[in-house]
Write a structure and sequence with these properties.
- The structure holds two protein chains of two kinds.
- Chain A is an alpha+beta fold.
- In chain A, a hairpin with a 2-residue loop joins strand 10 and strand 11.
- In chain A, helix 1 crosses helix 3 and helix 4 packs across helix 5.
- By secondary structure, chain B is an alpha+beta fold.
- Chain B has five helices and 21 strands.
- In chain B, helix 2 packs across helix 5.
- Chain B is elongated and about 70 Å long.
- Classes of the chains: A alpha+beta, B alpha+beta.
- At the A-B interface, strand 4 and strand 5 of A face strand 16, strand 19, strand 20 and helix 5 of B.
């Protein structure tokens, strides 16, 4: 499909292209970067406040915002070309995005009980990197991470910023079930599992916080654009926090 | 208390038009695999077209009606019977209290839909009734239907209106069901095919395909393997080679996206697709053909035919126009029959 380049004033500021006949992708860059992420957030926020008839939803990712629409509605029941109609609706917002102020960003602290039964692979990550387990914990907890996007599972954050000194390869054979709340490392990535899923990540700890509460008005703890910090807690604190969570859910 | 699930079948779930607005949080859309069949079934019983219905595959469930109900069965033909008599699909049917709905041998398609007038009294989760099995939400207790489950139809005036006016049978008739004497013009509904050709537009990463692979995609036959479920269909056929960039960056994927993982065999994403993915999106099955794809089971041989975006949009709009005609026709039946 032919890609539409941005208006001449801001060459290569963004590209527009279709994803099938009911979605359009706005792409703000070629690489993963903080600068591109800020544009993604600014545009997503602007569009959230300025939705149009036939708008279905938007999905921000590392360098793109995908906008889903209902072609029947945006074309006013078939009177116009739906794709062109959506472009005409998005262009003014894209122009504004360029002047948009930076979005405020929340800092979310995720308590983690590292090692032991909750982090069976902490030793492996340490040995693999010639570090002590304590050093792995302190490096993992010292970084402020950025939630670039949410995907793969409800509330699963794609985090940027992990220290490469604690990188570790995935398990050759994935585990059949990783308990929810597990904090893991895969290559240069770290993440936290909201649901029980199979997976090959090296598990270094677990959080007592629920990342996904479907019956809550705001079901996911994390959103794209959040900053995140892991805070080490003891097993005792883990159990206390877990109990508090149960009480608040009941 | 009105519908009792006596046997659950292989995978019987409650689905509606899908859970929208939460993909940015990683929450999948789910919803009926064959959206047109679901919408038509709802319209036939006077429901809102996106209302919750029962979706089933073979072997289908066994359902006891504890009260009279108006239902419509659409989608795959799994040889449905009511009180032992075969029942016509694609039209409203009055089911009498005590009757048993059963399914037999699959004759065409994969996913069958049972809409009940008034839909079901069930709580919505995040704006939808669709069952999302992995997260355990939606439908009935977030799971597939089980033996002993009870579904209670909601109160829908339109459905009741149907009941009085549309079904005329002599009082002496004590059969388990009374089908309406009319059915929508079949030209208004998608036609399922044994060896379908699915129309598709190029995807954002189409140009990563080698020249040979581009040709294969539009000319070769592909077969749906046994790895076929509500999440996606794994295909088998001429492997597709690509010139991959250094880094594949995750981005949104959708219903009908054709992705190519490393081993070169394409996967088509279906109703329970993940919200984002990292594999190249080489093409996208057009929305109008998704019902045909959804009804193509494992072993089906299919082809892809390239269309332009304007053509894809034309087919989309045509399908919506057909549905409008169907809606108006049903409304006239409701008012004047």
């Amino acid at each position: 499909m032919k890609k539409i380049k941005a208006a001449h004033a801001f060459p290569s500021a963004y590209q527009l292209f279709p994803l099938g006949d009911a979605a359009i992708v706005v792409q703000f860059g070629d690489k993963i970067s903080l600068e591109v992420h800020k544009k993604v957030r600014a545009f997503a926020a602007l569009l959230d406040e300025n939705t149009f008839e036939g708008f279905v939803e938007l999905v921000p990712a590392f360098r793109t915002v995908t906008v889903y629409y209902n072609p029947w509605q945006v074309s006013q029941r078939g009177q116009h070309d739906p794709y062109q109609a959506v472009i005409d609706l998005l262009l003014p917002l894209l122009t504004k995005t360029h002047h948009q102020e930076e979005q405020p960003s929340r800092l979310v602290e995720i308590p983690v009980c590292y090692g032991g039964e909750f982090g069976p692979d902490l030793e492996f990550v340490a040995t693999h990197n010639h570090l002590s387990p304590e050093m792995v914990i302190s490096l993992h907890a010292a970084t402020e991470y950025l939630v670039y996007m949410i995907g793969f599972a409800p509330g699963f954050p794609y985090l940027g910023g992990m220290n490469r000194l604690i990188a570790a390869p995935r398990h050759g054979t994935p585990r059949a079930a990783i308990p929810p709340g597990s904090v893991g490392i895969a290559g240069n990535q770290t993440g936290v599992y909201p649901l029980e899923t199979p997976g090959g990540w090296q598990l270094i700890g677990r959080t007592p916080l629920p990342l996904f509460q479907p019956h809550h008005p705001s079901p996911c703890l994390l959103k794209a654009g959040d900053r995140l910090r892991f805070v080490p807690i003891t097993q005792k604190e883990f159990l206390q926090r877990k109990e508090q969570v149960h009480e608040s859910v009941d | 208390m009105s519908l009792l699930i006596e046997k659950p079948g292989l995978l019987t779930t409650i689905q509606d038009g899908g859970r929208f607005g939460h993909q940015k949080e990683g929450i999948i859309v789910s919803g009926a695999m064959d959206r047109m069949a679901m919408r038509i079934a709802n319209l036939l019983v006077g429901n809102h077209e996106q209302a919750a219905v029962i979706e089933a595959v073979a072997p289908g469930p066994t359902v006891r009606f504890r009260k009279d109900a108006v239902i419509a069965i659409t989608g795959a033909d799994l040889s449905p019977t009511i009180a032992g008599e075969s029942v016509l699909m694609g039209r409203p049917v009055l089911v009498r209290q005590g009757s048993l709905l059963e399914f037999g041998a699959p004759r065409s398609g994969c996913y069958t839909y049972v809409a009940v007038a008034g839909s079901f009294e069930l709580p919505q989760v995040l704006g939808s009734h669709s069952t999302y099995l992995k997260a355990g939400i939606g439908g009935l207790h977030g799971r597939a239907l089980q033996a002993g489950d009870i579904l209670t139809p909601g109160k829908a005036a339109a459905g009741n209106g149907f009941r009085d006016k549309m079904f005329r049978s002599p009082a002496s008739d004590t059969s388990g069901c009374v089908p309406a004497r009319w059915t929508p013009d079949p030209r208004l509904c998608p036609v399922y095919q044994e060896q379908p050709t699915l129309r598709a537009v190029r995807g954002p990463e189409y140009d990563l395909l080698s020249e040979n692979s581009k040709q294969y995609l539009w000319t070769e036959k592909y077969q749906i393997t046994r790895q076929a479920d509500r999440m996606g269909l794994q295909l088998q056929g001429a492997p597709l080679a690509m010139v991959l960039p250094e880094e594949l960056i995750s981005c949104a994927v959708t219903f009908g996206t054709i992705q190519v993982p490393h081993q070169g065999s394409p996967i088509v994403l279906m109703a329970d697709h993940q919200t984002t993915g990292g594999y190249p999106r080489i093409a996208q099955v057009i929305t109008a053909d998704l019902p045909i794809l959804a009804q193509a089971g494992p072993g089906t041989i299919l082809r892809f035919a390239e269309v332009t975006l304007p053509e894809a949009q034309q087919h989309y709009l045509q399908q919506e126009q057909n549905l409008e005609i169907l809606k108006r026709g049903i409304e006239l039946k409701r008012l004047f029959s």
